[in-house]
Write a structure and sequence with these properties.
mainly alpha, Growth Hormone, Chain: A, 78% helix, globular, disordered C terminus, transmembrane helix, transmembrane transporter activity, transmembrane
Length: 505
């Protein structure tokens, strides 16, 4: 591929515009912005122990550094896609970049945990604007089907490697500069992307000019999710039967119920319900939600386990996650992508979730003195392979056969399930871990002299209890995929792979 060359093959179909000669450089700008959004979901993980010490966060509240971002991102993603259609994709893209950079600078300068949580939530708000507009710009920039396949392949590979880059870059910045640079680093990236957007990207008119924003739907949906996640986090200090915790769960469920009712009546619903009424599509959304609940919780625990319990440096801890990411990429590109057109999707999704469950079950055996090579590494490889086997058929099946007008909202719904699963998983499993750890320490601490051995053992005990829960969720995901995703292998291999490329980004 020659950047800057048109590279056309064959005549341009009648009625289509001439290809932009700088479109491959435009792809670099779009991919850079997407990489920043994906990277930010993991870069802060490695910095979290340092940030927790600096800002005096409690173990129960630390998860909000991750959850505030994923919750705002997932809760507003559908609304962000609709805004991009109405306001203009390039304009929304630039606004998203500038807002993301300002929120990152605010987080880097945070003097308190509340300020950091707020900045991370703001990052999620602007990421919800940025991600759909980036995908839409990519779709309108590359109109030739063959070039579009290449472009989505590059975009998907960068998006898929973002978590690995986040872990490594987070480790380097935390160890050699300061945890705050894990947020400040977004500012120069965003500046380059904004300049590139003005110079290289061209918007094309959308088709949603007469549609209206479903603001009530966004408020109800996001409000319900926030109440539920906040309920999980408050269960750790207050207990599961505390009136506030029960009230938060009740309010969250009520708001989500009203959200569903409103989507049936809204003139321009945020989430057209016919999309989730399809059995296979609903099964894919639910499988994604459950799979990510387990994976995001694990990211949090393993970061603390490697740095606090095993004493790894931030860089070494970041590198410790590399096998997991490599296994996800291999499972996705070398196994799922090759088998997707030959076997039914659930024949990949069910074994994938069972492999991930097996990896988590191995991790339930970890102790204060576990060896990374013999005990942690095999579990991470199994988990990554299982997630890679699952992600590709989920994206392909969820977006197969939808009407063109629903393709954007369907892709956004898969991504929303991913972000919401991350929010719920991080909050729920962090609460389980901290509660179990506290109970263990209370039961085993006989004298102050025992504290040096009992507290680390209690922390690891909390992690293993939470990982048992994560394994159960993965098993439930396997059952959901097996019972709900009943579609047959796709008839046309090329079109199925194209769907995967488009949805992975």
């Amino acid at each position: 591929m020659s950047i800057g060359r048109t590279g056309e093959r064959g005549p341009v179909p009648a009625g289509t515009e001439a290809a932009d000669p700088r479109r491959w450089w435009g792809l670099v700008v779009i991919a850079l912005a997407q990489l920043m959004v994906v990277l930010d979901a993991t870069i802060v993980n490695i910095a979290l122990p340092s940030a927790q010490r600096a800002l005096h966060m409690s173990d129960g509240n630390r998860q909000w550094v991750i959850t505030a971002y994923t919750l705002a991102f997932g809760g507003l993603l559908l609304l962000g896609g609709r805004i991009a259609d109405l306001v203009g994709r390039k304009r929304t893209f630039v606004i998203g970049l500038i807002g993301f950079a300002l929120a990152s600078a605010l987080g880097g300068a945070a003097g308190s945990s509340g300020m950091l949580f707020g900045a991370r939530a703001l990052q999620g708000v602007f990421a919800a604007l940025l991600a759909p507009s980036a995908l839409s710009l990519l779709t309108t920039t590359f109109t030739d089907p063959r070039e579009r396949g290449k472009a989505f392949g590059i975009y998907g590979a960068l998006a898929g490697s973002g978590s690995a880059i986040g872990f490594i870059l987070g480790g380097l910045l935390t160890e050699y500069l300061n945890w705050r640079w894990c947020l400040y680093v977004n500012v120069p990236i965003a500046v380059v992307a904004v300049l590139g957007a003005f110079a290289l990207l061209h918007d094309r008119p959308g088709h949603g000019g007469t549609a209206r924003l479903d603001v009530p739907g966004a408020v109800l949906g996001c409000g319900g999710l926030v109440a539920i996640v906040y309920g999980f986090s408050e269960a750790e200090p207050r207990g599961w039967t505390d009136p506030l915790v029960l009230a938060l769960f009740a309010v969250g469920i009520a708001l989500l119920a009203v959200f569903v009712w409103w989507q049936n009546r809204a003139p321009d619903p945020l989430l057209p319900l016919h999309i989730v009424r399809d059995r296979n599509r609903a099964g894919c959304f639910l499988t994604m939600l459950l799979a990510v609940i387990g994976m995001f919780g694990l990211f949090l625990f393993m970061t603390y386990y490697l740095q606090v319990i095993l004493g790894y440096s931030p860089v070494r801890a970041g590198l410790g996650f590399l096998p997991l990411t490599a296994a996800i990429i291999i499972g996705s590109t070398q196994i799922s992508a090759r088998l997707l057109n030959r076997v039914a999707p659930r024949m990949l999704m069910v074994p994938g979730m069972l492999l991930a469950c097996a990896g988590l079950l191995l991790l339930t055996r970890m102790t204060v003195h576990s060896s990374y090579t013999s005990e942690i590494l095999p579990a991470l490889l199994l988990l990554g392979l299982g997630m890679g086997l699952t992600f590709m058929p989920v994206f392909a099946t969820a977006t197969a056969g939808v009407a063109p007008r629903d393709s954007g909202v369907t892709s956004a719904t898969v991504n929303t399930a991913q972000q919401v699963g991350g929010s719920i998983g991080t909050a729920l499993l962090n609460t389980v871990a901290t509660t179990s750890a506290a109970a263990y320490v209370t039961a085993h601490l006989r004298s102050p002299a025992d504290r040096a051995t009992v507290v680390p053992a209690g922390v690891v005990h909390g992690y293993t209890v939470a990982i048992w829960w994560a394994a159960a969720v993965m098993l439930l995901a396997a059952v959901v995929a097996g019972l709900m995703v009943t579609t047959k292998p796709p008839r046309h291999g090329v079109s199925a792979q194209a769907q995967v490329r488009e949805s992975v980004g």
